[in-house]
Amino acid sequence: MIILINRFTVTGPADQFEQVFVGTSEFFRRAPGHLRNRLLKVSDAPTAYVNIAEWSDMESLQKAIRQPEFDPHAQQLRALATAEPTVCEVVGEWFGEQA
Asked: What is the pTM of this model?
């Protein structure tokens, strides 16, 4: 499994960015190898968001972003925000104790 962590700095209207992101997430949701993603708003930075996306493997992620159908989503996001993507591999995972 790989994790894509993408920090966005929104330069347009935040509500419009969130709406466009929902459409992009729907596109990825149908892509083979996509496991889940979450969009987080940074608490102390009103223009900052973080996307955490889980993929089965790097090949699946690359196939999804290379599809021509992804281009309009990428263009819409770039018009509203700058992105700083980082791809990570899981090396450990811990959960809290259940009561």
From this structure: 0.90
